[in-house]
Specification:
Radius of gyration: 18 Å
Distance between the termini: 22 Å
Shape: globular
Number of helices: 1
CATH topology: Jelly Rolls
Bound molecules: manganese (II) ion
Helix content: under 10%
Number of domains: 1
CATH architecture: Sandwich
Order of helices and strands: EEEEEEEEEEEEEEEEEEEEEEEEH
CATH superfamily: Jelly Rolls
Strand content: over 45%
């Protein structure tokens, strides 16, 4: 195929009391979104035995859903709705920010020795951007089994299996556990991308290992992957609205970002409080001196 793009990520050190290094492949300079997927951070595998592990203090979100997905380890989610939820591999924590929510994510005091996962965001369409905040834990996602591997459907539908997690646009997210090979049906009207999580996968004759996001475009009705590898498949209907993404906020324009930042700085009830977190919340960085311009899914 000719329309693939290899989107190489950049290393980002997240703030907080203990820095955590992630590889961010979305948003990318050349492509901001895949369907409504607008943010892909990959972290680990990291040995955190005898260490603090993940410490992401309370911070706000608007206009998006956060998707927490682990390959190894355990993470405790706490939010301003009062949710307290430990997540393990194979389970989904899905937080819908809507008009505003705050959350913290930490390794529990007694945690597994290795931390490995992804943090993903899904943009909400304008019609649902200011919906009420919500949190859902999905511990029983559908798993498809094939001779050459298995597939966990995280969001949306794949090969007849449907996740019960709430979505706002036509979208799919799945983890492929490829032993020898998988041949999966795709929707030609969706665009797709794959991220190898471990091992080496062959896709379209291209050998791909952990690191970059391979954008596959639209117009495909099959995906053939040879392994062994673990692969994240992200897809959806191309997202045609323009968005502003700044810090932890997704919004429609500059003014909405300014308001969200001000509301967080003022500890406004819009975001609420994460009770049970022992430290201070994360302050928002300074706004840039120029107006934030809404942009489309590709640059
Ligand atoms: Mn977050």
């Amino acid at each position: 195929m000719s329309d693939v793009e290899l989107l190489v990520g950049r290393d980002v050190v997240l703030g907080g009391t203990r820095a955590m290094r992630v590889t961010r492949t979305l948003p990318h300079r050349d492509r901001r979104m895949v369907g409504a997927w607008c943010f892909v951070d990959r972290y680990g595998p990291e040995n955190i035995a005898g260490r603090t592990g993940m410490v992401v203090p309370p911070h706000p979100h608007t206009g998006l859903q956060t998707v927490s997905w682990l390959l190894a380890g355990d993470v405790l989610h706490q939010d301003s709705l009062g949710s307290q939820q430990l997540i393990r591999p194979g389970q989904l924590n899905l937080m819908t920010a809507g008009r505003g929510i705050a959350h913290a994510e930490v390794s529990p005091a007694e945690h597994e020795p290795v931390l490995d996962g992804v943090q993903l965001w899904v943009a909400l369409p304008a019609a649902d951007r200011w919906t009420g905040p919500d949190f859902g834990h999905h511990g029983d996602l559908p798993v498809l089994t094939y001779p050459g591997g298995s597939v966990t459907v995280i969001l949306g539908e794949l090969d007849g299996a449907v996740s019960d997690a709430r979505t706002f646009t036509p979208i799919v997210g799945a983890e492929l556990a490829v032993r020898t090979g998988l041949d999966l049906p795709l929707r030609p009207d969706f665009e797709y991308a794959v991220l190898v999580l471990s091992g080496a996968a062959t896709i379209d004759g291209l050998e791909l290992t952990a690191g970059p996001l391979l954008y596959l475009g639209t117009g495909r009705d099959r995906l053939t992957v040879a392994g062994p590898a673990r692969v994240l498949l992200l897809g959806g209907e191309p997202f045609d609205e323009q968005l502003v993404m700044w810090w932890n906020f997704v919004a429609g324009d500059h003014e909405e970002i300014v308001q969200a930042r001000a509301d967080w700085a003022a500890a406004d009830e819009r975001f609420g409080l994460v009770s049970g977190y022992p430290g201070d919340p994360l302050p928002a960085p300074a706004l840039p001196g120029t107006r934030l311009m809404p942009r489309g899914r590709r640059r």
